[in-house]
Structure prediction request, 447 residues.
Amino acid sequence: MPLLNSSGNETPSWAIVIHGGAGGDPQKWNDAKTKIRRTGLNRALTAGRDALAQGGNALDTVELVIRILEDDAAFNAGRGAVLTKAGKVELDASIMDGRTGSCGAVAGLTATQNPISLARRVMTETPHVLLAGKGADEFAKAQQVPLVAPDYFLSRNRVADNEPHFGTVGCVVLDSKGDLAAGTSTGGTSKKLPGRVGDSPIVGAGTYAANDTCAVSGTGVGEEYIRNSVAYDVAAQMRYADRNIDDAVSKIMRQTLDAGVGGIIAISKDGTIVMQHNTPGMSCGAANSTGRFETHLGLERGGEPLKSDGNSNTPVSSDAENAISELILQQVVDWNRGDIDAFMKPYWHSDELTFSSGGKVTRGYEKTLAGYKERYPDKQTMGALAFEKLEYQSLGSKAMQVLGIWKLERDNQPLEGRFTLILRQFPEGWKIVHDHTSKTPDETGNP
Ligand code: ASP
Prediction:
């Protein structure tokens, strides 16, 4: 059976997501603008997909894809960058390697053709993380990263874009070795004050990647992304709050940031793809090793998945319910065959399993199994088991509570009680991590 990721999809061996900026309203774009955006996204995504399919690594792919978008005048990065109040370009970019946490960034470039490549050189060729302004362009010269004359950048004015603010580009990748990388590149906000720096070159705000969690690139009002450490917050929620990537991004998009602020693309270490925005549109696209390939100018509900919960109470997907009910019904079959080892299979094989019965808590799988075997030495004693009135309650995307009634028929002596199971989803499937069972009235004498 293929492994499933946190969205319940087959785990891909590699995956890529790109964005070409949030905001603007694609419904209002004319055919020409729609077409150049789509063409640009498709071209960049195709190059990224092909590189990954041929075994390309995450960092190289991020750089390759962002260079293509920087060279495309349809986007606000590199060639198509918007202008400052003073009528000049000032380009920002960053890149991060999820394997090591190494990162590099550049800000306020005025003459470097591909800021993302210079950001990568800052990462690999200097002890620094962020180079800005004149020194950064000079570093480009020293590194033989191509410089261009100012008129190279004026294309955005020539295409007379009336929504010039948007079109920052970003790319996040999971490669077939399991490494993550992220990058973002922008001309910033149009008519910005000379010297203004946004989130795109700020690691943790506009870009972040760590192999233990995810890779993230943001687009939108950079000041808000900096204030809220947006890119890092996605990883932090996964790391410390055990949120899945969809829920982590949804929380930022719907709760942390005001509506209309921007969008996020992200990819988790298990290849789950996320594209969300709280603006009318976001140019974006995704591809992976299972054949997925798609580009969009905006997503329904801003890309928020329907089953997303982040808290509790929202019903977990019926897939999870089905998987768990199958497990539990198999337990009943195994019990009635007199096979306690098989019955115990869905329990968490860990010292941290807890089994609570008759006011006594048993800790650990082995002890719980031994306890069962002691109480039910043979098929006769085990009797005939049935479960009834099962209720499922989601405790987030990877945990579920199941309530039910058990009935045991033994020597014509019906016994009955309640149970509460807590299950968690592990890579190998759902496991019972806690089982509370009681007779009715329970053994402690409580009703
Ligand atoms: N985040 C970018 C900035 O503030 C702009 C954008 O993504 O549209 O510089």
Notes: Residues 21, 166, 168, 186, 188-189, 198-200, 206, 219-220, 222 surround aspartic acid (CB under 6 Å). The mean pLDDT is 90. The first strand starts at residue 15 and ends at 22. The radius of gyration is 27 Å.
